[in-house]
Recover the amino acids of this structure.
C-alpha cells in the first residue's frame, strides 16, 4: 500500500465540462417536481418506495394478528387474508426493494460515485420515476376497485389467479398486471440509464476496477433486471389476455364451481417458467446492490481496505450470470423430470461458492480492522449474519429431496424472509444511516438509530427463527388459519402468538425510524462534507448536499481505488479517490 | 426455455468478452495516478446514444427470445395444430427488408454528406415500414376472415400476440424515424458539420433498430411458417 507512481502523468489538466452540456431547471416545478436531476429523482423514488413499503408493513401486522390470534380482527376473512398476503409480498419485493435499491440508491450514488454530473439520459430518467409512480398509484387503486386487490399470491400462479373463486378476480388481477407492466416499462427506462452511465459517464481515471463496490453491485443488478424483467412482462401480457379476452396461454381446460370454463389447452407450467425466470434473478437484483453497499460500509467503518476487491467484483459478476440458470429450483414440486431437478440443484449449490467468497472477504475485511460500531456498521454486521443464516437454509431448500417435504411450509417463508427480506432491509437501513448526511447535510440521531437497530435486529430473529421450527413441524404457508390438525402441537399456537407480539414491536420501531428521518432533517447534528472519513467521490463534493451538476466548475479526477484506508505513512487514515499522489522526490 | 437460455448464453459471452477487455485483472490497490494508456481507462469512443440503443436492443431481444421460448413450449403440446399462413406475410416481409435496405442507403448517403440521399432513404424506409404494418393488419384480417380470430385457438393467439408485439416495436421505431426525417428536411445543405454529424448519428441509430426489427421478424416468420420445426424438435430432444 505505498504510493507507487510509476508511469503516471503528474501534471494533469482538469477535465472541464462546458456548461451547455448540463440541463438547467428553469422553475420550481422543473427543479423539484418534474426534475431531471438524478439526485432529486432518487429522493422521489426513495420516498415513494418507503411510503408504499409502510403500507406493506401494516399488512404484515394484519397477517400476523390473524396468524397469532385467529379471529381477533373480524374483517379479516380468508379472502381478505389472501389479498393482504399477496399485496404484502408484491409491494415488498418489487415496489419497495427493487425500486429503492435501483431507483433510489442507483440514481443517487451512480453519478456521484463515478464523478459524473448526472445520468446520461436525464429526461428518460425523469420519465422512469413518473411511470414508476403511476405503477404505484395503479397498484394502490386496486384496493378500491370492486372486489378488492387480487389474492392470488405474489407469484400470481394461473389458473387459480384468474378463477372465480380467487378474491379480486373481477378487477384486482387486471389492475395488478397493468401495474406490473407499467413498473417494468418505468424500470427499463431507468435501468438503461444506470447501465449506460456506468459505461459512459465515468470521470477521468475512474476505471471499472476503481469503481466502488456499491456501483458494481447496482450495475450488475441492473443488467440482471434488464434481462429478467421481460420475462415477467411476457407473463403479464399473456395472463392479461387470458383474463380479458379469454385466450388460453396459461389456462388449461378446467371446471370451476361446477362449470366447464371455455379455456382449453393452456400451460400453467409455462407461466411458472416465465415467472421464475424473472423471479430468481429478482432475488439477486435485490441482493447484489446490498452486497455492494455492505462492502463499502464495512470498509469505511472498519477503516480498512476491502479484502479481495477483485474477487468481490468477479463474484458479483459470477453470481449474476449463475442466477439465470437456477430458476427451476422454485418448481421442484411441479412434476419436473428428475434430471432437470438434478441440474437445477447443482447450479443452485454452485451459487454458494461466489457467495461464500463474498462472506469470507467481508469477515477478513473486519479482521483486525479499527471497527467503529456506528449505526451503519451495526446494520452491515447484522446483514452479514442474517444473509449467512438465510443463505444456509437456501442450501437445504436447493436440494430436491429436502425441498419436496419442506415446500409450501413456513420454513420456506422463514428462509426467504431472512435472505431477501430482512437482509436487504438491513442493507437499506445501513445505507440510509450512512448516506443520509450526504443527502441532507445532517446526521440521523444516533440514540434513536441504535435503539432502532437493536429492536429491529433482535426482533427480526425473534420473529423468523421460530418460524423455521414451525415450518419444520409441517405448518403450511398461505393458510389463513390452522384449525385442528393432528400434526400441529399446541405449542405452535403459543409460538405464533409470541411472533405476532414481536412483529408488532418491530413494526413500531420502524415508525420510530420514519420519525428519525423527519426529525433529523431539521434538528440533526450538522454533518459536514465527509462525516465518516470515506474515500469515495460522493463525499468529496464541493457542497453538501451536492449542488446541481454535483461538482462545481471542474470534474474530479480519480487517482486511486476506493479503499485507501489506513494507508501507512499517510497524513489521514483515508485517502480520497481524487487525492493526487505525492510526487516522488527521488 | 432453451431459446432463452441460448440468448442468455450469447449475452453472457458478449459481456464476458467486453469485461475481459476492461482490465479486470488489474490490481487497483497498487496502481495510483492516472495513466492515459491504461486499457479501459476512458469510456468507450462510441456515442452514448448508440450504447443506449444497444442496451435497449438487448432488453427487446430478451423479450422476443422469451416469446419464442413460450411459443416453442406450447407448440410441443399434443393438441397443437398450425395455422395456414396468409400469403400477404411474404409481401410484408419484403417490405420490411426494403425499409431496412433503404435505411442502410440513407446511412451511406449520410456518411458522404448527400442530403438528397438521406431524405429519400428515410422517406422510402418510412413508407415501406408503414406498408409493412398495413400488410400485417391485412394478414390479421385474412386470418379473421377464415375464422381463426377466436381466443380458443392457441396457434392464432400466439400469432396475434407475436405479430402485435413486433408491430408495436415497428410503430415505436416509426416515431423516431419520423423525427429524424423532419430533422433531415429542416437541415439545409449548408449546415455545420456538427449538425450533419448529429443527423448522421440519428440515421445510423434508426438503421440499427430497423436491422434488429428485421432480424426479429425473420426469426418469427420462419417460426410461424414452420421452417424451424426440425430445429425446435432437436432442441426438445436435447431436453428430454
Amino acid at each position: 500500500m505505498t504510493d507507487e507512481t510509476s508511469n503516471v502523468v503528474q501534471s494533469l489538466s482538469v477535465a472541464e465540462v462546458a456548461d451547455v452540456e448540463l440541463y438547467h431547471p428553469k422553475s420550481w416545478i422543473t427543479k423539484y417536481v418534474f426534475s431531471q436531476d438524478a439526485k432529486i429523482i432518487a429522493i422521489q423514488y426513495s420516498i415513494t418506495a418507503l411510503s408504499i413499503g409502510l403500507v406493506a408493513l401494516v399488512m404484515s401486522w394484519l397477517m400476523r394478528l390473524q396468524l397469532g390470534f385467529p379471529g381477533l380482527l373480524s374483517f379479516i376473512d380468508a379472502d381478505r387474508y389472501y389479498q393482504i398476503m399477496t399485496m404484502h409480498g408484491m409491494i415488498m419485493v418489487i415496489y419497495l426493494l427493487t425500486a429503492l435499491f435501483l431507483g433510489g440508491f442507483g440514481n443517487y450514488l451512480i453519478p456521484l460515485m463515478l464523478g459524473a454530473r448526472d445520468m446520461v439520459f436525464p429526461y428518460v430518467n425523469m420519465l422512469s420515476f413518473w411511470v414508476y409512480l403511476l405503477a404505484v398509484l395503479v397498484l394502490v387503486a386496486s384496493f378500491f376497485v370492486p372486489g378488492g386487490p387480487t389474492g392470488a399470491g405474489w407469484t400470481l400462479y394461473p389458473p387459480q389467479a384468474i378463477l372465480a373463486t380467487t378474491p379480486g378476480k373481477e378487477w384486482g388481477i387486471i389492475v395488478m398486471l397493468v401495474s406490473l407492466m407499467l413498473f417494468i416499462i418505468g424500470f427499463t427506462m431507468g435501468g438503461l440509464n444506470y447501465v449506460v452511465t456506468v459505461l459512459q459517464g465515468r470521470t477521468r481515471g475512474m476505471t471499472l476496477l476503481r469503481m466502488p463496490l456499491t456501483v458494481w453491485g447496482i450495475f450488475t443488478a441492473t443488467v440482471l433486471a434488464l434481462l429478467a424483467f421481460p420475462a415477467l412482462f411476457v407473463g403479464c401480457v399473456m395472463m392479461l389476455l387470458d383474463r380479458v379476452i379469454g385466450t388460453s396461454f396459461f389456462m388449461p381446460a378446467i371446471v370451476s364451481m361446477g362449470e366447464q370454463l371455455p379455456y382449453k389447452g393452456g400451460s400453467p407450467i409455462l407461466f411458472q417458467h416465465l415467472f421464475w425466470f424473472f423471479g430468481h434473478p429478482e432475488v439477486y437484483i435485490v441482493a447484489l446492490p446490498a452486497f455492494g453497499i455492505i462492502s463499502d460500509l464495512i470498509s469505511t467503518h472498519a477503516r480498512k481496505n476491502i479484502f479481495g476487491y477483485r474477487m468481490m467484483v468477479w463474484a458479483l459478476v459470477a453470481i449474476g450470470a449463475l442466477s439465470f440458470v437456477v430458476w427451476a429450483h422454485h418448481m421442484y414440486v411441479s412434476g419436473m423430470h428428475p434430471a432437470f431437478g438434478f441440474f437445477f440443484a447443482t447450479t443452485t449449490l454452485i451459487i454458494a461458492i461466489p457467495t461464500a467468497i463474498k462472506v469470507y472477504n467481508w469477515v477478513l475485511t473486519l479482521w483486525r480492522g479499527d471497527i467503529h460500531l456506528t449505526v451503519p456498521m451495526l446494520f452491515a454486521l447484522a446483514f452479514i449474519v442474517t444473509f449467512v443464516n438465510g443463505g444456509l437454509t437456501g442450501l437445504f431448500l436447493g436440494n430436491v429431496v429436502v425441498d419436496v417435504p419442506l415446500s409450501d411450509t413456513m420454513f420456506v417463508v422463514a428462509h426467504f424472509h431472512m435472505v431477501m427480506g430482512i437482509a436487504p432491509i438491513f442493507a437499506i437501513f445501513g445505507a440510509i444511516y450512512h448516506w443520509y448526511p450526504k443527502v441532507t447535510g445532517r446526521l440521523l440521531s444516533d440514540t434513536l438509530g441504535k435503539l432502532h437497530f437493536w429492536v429491529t435486529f433482535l426482533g427480526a430473529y425473534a420473529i423468523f427463527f421460530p418460524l423455521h421450527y414451525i415450518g419444520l413441524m409441517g405448518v403450511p404457508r398461505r393458510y389463513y388459519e390452522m384449525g385442528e390438525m393432528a400434526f400441529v402441537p399446541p405449542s405452535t399456537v403459543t409460538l405464533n402468538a409470541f411472533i405476532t407480539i414481536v412483529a408488532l414491536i418491530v413494526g413500531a420501531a420502524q415508525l420510530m425510524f420514519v420519525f428519525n428521518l423527519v426529525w433529523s432533517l431539521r434538528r440533526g447534528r450538522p454533518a459536514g462534507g465527509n462525516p465518516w472519513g470515506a474515500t469515495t467521490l460522493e463525499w468529496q463534493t464541493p457542497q453538501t448536499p451536492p449542488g446541481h451538476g454535483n461538482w462545481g466548475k471542474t470534474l474530479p479526477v480519480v487517482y486511486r481505488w476506493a479503499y485507501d484506508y489506513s494507508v501507512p505513512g499517510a497524513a489521514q487514515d483515508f485517502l480520497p479517490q481524487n487525492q493526487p499522489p505525492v510526487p516522488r522526490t527521488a | 426455455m432453451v431459446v432463452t437460455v441460448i440468448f442468455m448464453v450469447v449475452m453472457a459471452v458478449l459481456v464476458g468478452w467486453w469485461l475481459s477487455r476492461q482490465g479486470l485483472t488489474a490490481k487497483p490497490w497498487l496502481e495510483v495516478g492516472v495513466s492515459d494508456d491504461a486499457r479501459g481507462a476512458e469510456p468507450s469512443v462510441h456515442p452514448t446514444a448508440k450504447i443506449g440503443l444497444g442496451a435497449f436492443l438487448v432488453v427487446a431481444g430478451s423479450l422476443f427470445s422469451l416469446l419464442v421460448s413460450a411459443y416453442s413450449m406450447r407448440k410441443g403440446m399434443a393438441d397443437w395444430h398450425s395455422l395456414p399462413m396468409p400469403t400477404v406475410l411474404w409481401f410484408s416481409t419484403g417490405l420490411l427488408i426494403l425499409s431496412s435496405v433503404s435505411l442502410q442507403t440513407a446511412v451511406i448517403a449520410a456518411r458522404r454528406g448527400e442530403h438528397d440521399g438521406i431524405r429519400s432513404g428515410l422517406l422510402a424506409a418510412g413508407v415501406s415500414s408503414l406498408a409493412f404494418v398495413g400488410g400485417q393488419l391485412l394478414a390479421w384480417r385474412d386470418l379473421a376472415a377464415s375464422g381463426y380470430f377466436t381466443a380458443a385457438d392457441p396457434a392464432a393467439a400466439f400469432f396475434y400476440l407475436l405479430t402485435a408485439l413486433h408491430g408495436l416495436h415497428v410503430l415505436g421505431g416509426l416515431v423516431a424515424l419520423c423525427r429524424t426525417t423532419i430533422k433531415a428536411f429542416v437541415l439545409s445543405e449548408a449546415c455545420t458539420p456538427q449538425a450533419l454529424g448529429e443527423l448522421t448519428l440519428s440515421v445510423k441509430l434508426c438503421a440499427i433498430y430497423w436491422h434488429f426489427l428485421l432480424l426479429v421478424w425473420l426469426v418469427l416468420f420462419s417460426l410461424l411458417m414452420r421452417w424451424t420445426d426440425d430445429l425446435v424438435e432437436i432442441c426438445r430432444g436435447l431436453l428430454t
